[in-house]
Amino acid sequence: MRRLLVAVAAAALALTACGSGETGGDGKVTITFWDNNGGPARTPIYEELIKRFETANPDIHVEYVGIPSASVQQKYDTAIAGGETPDVGGVTTSYLAHLVGQEALAPVDDRINGGPLKDRLLPSLVETVRQTAPDGKLYIVPSSANMDIIWYRTDWFKDAGIEPPKTWDEFVTAATKLTDTAANKYGYTIRGGAGSVFQLITEAYAYSGVDNFYKGGQSTLNDKANAELVDKVADLYKKATPEADVNNSFTQMIAQFTGGSVAMMHHNLGSYSDVTKALGDKVAAIPLPVGPSGKRTIVPNPTDGFAVFKNSEHPDAAWKFAEFLTSAESNSYWNEKVGQIPANTDVRSAAWIDKAAHVKMALDVLEDPATVLVPAPVYLPQYSSITKTDSEPQYQKVLLGELSGQQFLDEMAKKLTEAQKEWEERK
Amino acid sequence: MTETLTRPPVNTPPPPRRPTKRRRRAVAEEPGKRWLIHVPLVVYLLFTLIPFYWMLVFAVRPTGSTQLVPWPMTLEHFDTVWNDIGFGIFFYNSVIIGLGVLVFVTILSTMGGYALARFKFRGQRVFLLALLCTQFIPGAMMLIPLFVIFKGAGLLNSLTGLVIAEVAFQLPLALILMSGFVRNISYELEEAAMVDGCSRMRAFFAVTLPQLKPALVAVGSFAFIGAWNQFLFALMFASRQDKFTLPVGLSYALGEFNTDFGALAAGGVVAAVPVVLVFAVVQRFLVQGLSAGAVKG
C-alpha cells in the first residue's frame, strides 16, 4: 500500500522505482528459469527441484518464472527482441526452430557429451530435437516426451463386454456400440476445433502405416490410406460422437470425457492428471489403433526440453541447472508427477513406471523395434499456419460432409511439399 | 492565456429533455402492459447472470461433477487458486495497478478534458484526431518498441512501469470522454462564479468539478477495469513471478494439455468480486446528476 501512496504522491517523479537487481552481494550467482507451462500442475514440481538444486549448489540461486503456456512463444519473442532472455528456459520442439532461427539459444551438444548425460538420453528424442534445427545441433537437452494415445473408460468397456480396440475397425465397432444418444452417451469424441489437424495426422499415419512424412520430396500425407482414415473418422461424427465436436478444442474434449458422457478420447499423456483426477481407476490408455497393414507408425509429439540462452551471463551455472533437471533423479521425479515419458534412460528401471500403466504402455510402444517414428515437419516455418490456420477450418468441412478426406489432404500435402522444398533450398 | 479563451456559442441548444419519461410512466401504470417492460428485463437479466452462475457452479463443485446445483460445495478450487497459483500477490499487484491507473487517468483526463472543452488552441482538431487515431493501434504491435523503451528506462519488472504503460494507453479515450462531459456543463455557471470573484481555478473546483462527479466515476471505473484486465503488458514487461497480475494468474489454469476449470472459475470469482463490489458502490453516481439540468429556461 505504501508503494501506491508514494506513486500517487510523487506522481511522475517515481519513474525509477525498483530495477531488477540481478546480482547478490555475497558472490551468489542468480539465474532465471522460465517454465514454459507454468501453473498449479507444474509449478510445485519445479519449486521442489529448485530447492534440491540450491541445496546441492549453495552458490547458485534459481529464480523461477512460470509463463502461461498459451503465451510462451510471444514471451520468448519479446524477450529475444528486447535482449532480456532468461538463462534457462523450458522449450518444446514445436517452437524450437523458431528460437534457433533468431539465434537465441546456445547449442548443448558438447556439454551433453562432456558430462554424465552422455548416452543417457532416449535416442528417438535426441533425434527429434536434432531434426528440428537446420544445422542438426542440439539446442535443447530433451527431458520428456509425450505421446498421442486413446484414453478409454474401463468400466464402460467391461459393462458392454468388449475388449479395448487394437485396430481401427475394432475401434469403430466399439465406438458405435457404446453410443446411446438418448442417454447422452457417446462412444468417441472428435477434436474438430483448435489443434484438430495434428491429432488427425497422428491417427492417419497410425492407420496407414506409411513410414515417412516425405517420399522423394513429396508429402505422403495425401496417401490413399490416410484419406481413407479421414473419411472413417468423419463417418463417426454425430453417429458415435456429440454434435458439438466440430468445434472441440482439447479443453471441451476433456470436459466431455471427464464429465462422463464419452467412452473414448484421443488426446495425449499430458491429460493424465485431469482424467485420473476426475475418473480415478475407471480410465486407462491404449495406443492409437493400427490399420489393415498391422504396422505401428507413430507421429511423435513435440519433445520437451531445456535450453540455455545465448545471452546468459552465467552459462555454466545455467547448464548446471539444465543438467540437474535432466539427471536421472530429477527427470524421474518430474515425469512421475506429470505422467510423461522420461528422456533419461536410467529412469526406465524406476519403480513408478511399472505402476504408471499409461507411461509403461507408451514406453513399450516407443521401445518396440517394430515401431516406426514418422516425425512431422515442425521445423518448417509455415508448418503451424498450414496445419492450423489453413487446415483446421477445412477439416470442419470434412466433418460436416462438405469436403472429402482425399481433397482435404491433397490440399494440405501440396502446401507441405512446397514448404519443404523452400526449406531444403534455404538450408 | 486569456486571449485564447472563447465563450462557447450562447445559442447552443440545451441537451434534449427526455420525452420518453412520460410515456414510460404511462406504460408502467397500465397494469396489463407491465410485462412489456418486465419480460425483456428478465430475459436480459438471465442473459447476463447465467454466465456468472456458471462460473460460481464451476468454482464450488468438485472436479468431475456435472451437477447443476453445486451441492455439496467445496472450496478446494479456491485453495488451488490462492495457495498453489499464489493469487495473493497477483491480487495485490492488480489492485495497485488498478488504483494507480484510476488516479492518474482521472486526474490527467480531467485537466486535459477541461482544456479541450474550454479553450481553443492551434491544432486542436488535429490533436483530437490524433487522440482518436491512437485507439486504432493494437497494444501487441507496440509491444517490442515499448519493451525496449521500458528496458532503457529501468521500468521492466516494476508496477510503476505497468501503471505508466496502461495510463498512456487509456488516456486518449478518457480525454475524449472527459472533454465531452465538460462541454455539457454550462460555461455560464463558471462565468457566474467568476463574476462573483472566483479565479478560474476556484470556479472549476467550486462549480464544475462537483457536476463532473458522474463523469469522474465513469472515466475512473473504465480506467480501473481496463487496468484490472490487463494481461499482455503485465506478462511481457514483467519477468518475475511476484510482479504478475490477476489475468496472468488466471491463465495459469489453462495448461498446455490440461485445463483446470475449477481453478479457472474460482480465479474468475476472485477477480470479479472486487469489480462487482466497486460497481455496486459507484453505480448510483453513474446515473446521478444525469437529469440535473443547471441552466433553466
Summarize the structure.
Chain A is α/β, with parallel strands linked by helices. Chain A has 18 helices and 15 strands. The longest helix of chain B has 32 residues.
Question: How would you describe what is shown here?
Answer:
The complex is a heterodimer of chains A (427) and B (297). Chain A contains 18 helices and 15 strands. Chain A is of the alpha/beta class and 427 residues long. Chain A folds into two domains: 22-146 and 302-368, D-Maltodextrin-Binding Protein, domain 2, CATH 3.40.190.10; 148-299 and 380-426, D-Maltodextrin-Binding Protein, domain 2, CATH 3.40.190. In chain A, β1 (29-35), α2 (43-56) and β2 form a beta-alpha-beta unit. Chain B has 297 residues and is an all-alpha fold. Chain B has two domains: 15-74, no CATH class; 78-287, Orthogonal Bundle (MetI-like fold), CATH 1.10.3720.10. Chain B contains 13 helices and no strands.
**CATH homologous group name of the largest domain in chain B:** MetI-like
Structural class, from helix and strand content of chain B?
mainly alpha
User: What is the total domain count of chain A?
Assistant: 2
Query: CATH topology of the largest domain in chain A, what is it called?
Result: D-Maltodextrin-Binding Protein, domain 2
* Count, helices of chain A: 18
Tell me, rounded to a whole number, the average pLDDT of chain B. Answer: 84
The major sheet of chain B is characterized as: none
User: Number of helix segments of chain B?
Assistant: 13
Number of E-state strands of chain B: 0
Q: In the CATH hierarchy, what is the superfamily of the largest domain in chain A?
A: Periplasmic binding protein-like II
Q: What is the CATH C-level name of the largest domain in chain B?
A: Mainly Alpha
Query: Please, what is the average pLDDT of chain A?
Result: 90
Percent helix of chain A: 40-55%
Number of E strands of chain A:
15
